[in-house]
Amino acid sequence: MKALIIGCNGLLGQNLLLTRPSSTWEVFGAGLEKAPGHPALLSGYQSVDISRREDLDATIKAVAPDWIFNAAAITDVDLCERDPALAGLINRDTVGWMADHRIPMVHVSTDYVFDGEAGPYLEDAPTRPLSVYGSTKLESERLVLSRSGRSLIVRTMTLWGRGKGAKTSFVDFVRDSLKAGKTIRIVTDQWGNATLAEDLALGIWNLVEGGHAGVFHVAGSEWNSRFEWAQAIADHYGLDRGLIQSCLTADLKQAARRPLKSGLRTDKLTAATGFRPRNIAGQIRRMDELSQSIT
Predict the structure, then answer these.
(1) Which end of the chain has the lower number of beta carbons within 10 A, N or C?
(2) What is the pTM of this model?
């Protein structure tokens, strides 16, 4: 089987490459960058600006994949709110262009398709996005599902992990700030599942290899507040949790509304594949293991 991972240099894209079932898949990558971050893991690479339809179409036709994995998106929700045209182009329109090829897709979506009033959510819960980001992602879900009955929508949230060129994770921010004796402010009213990028990638491969289609949630197995997550990080590293001060989301005066009582239930994923993503403690231990293996 031949897969094309669009956005292969991002955090999820890299983890999809690192966890790929190499014995059964020939994997090609595409990204905005001139060269891939993991060339040894790819059978080929295309540098492409997905906002240009002709270039995106040419890339897909050149690779002729059996599956398209779309790991490209604008995930800065406040930027999406300030520039809805850009959000619509990247998070919705480009997805429609990919889906128009009628090739089965894995498209990664978000808990932001929900309003955050009754989480954690099952896959068939009513959607009601509060932001431009959530709206464009919900529209992209519908485009993908309308083009191929074999495609997968994988919703996730609060993604973090290690990757070449990846931005500083929440775990790194909390740990490094507390080690330096700095006080940090963390919201107490945002609830959800922290998700390790490696677990998201493994969940995706399990679903594809198992022949599943439709909407699935892949997120960490522990549901808590962002504040509690920060406390768990402090406790894991033996740092002073007293340096963590509480605040509310409204205090941050962000451009986009957040779904506050959010979260994704993964019962369907586990029933279908037997795979269960790690809880927060397991995620942090895994990242510690990877850091030690690198050093």
Answers:
(1) C
(2) 0.96
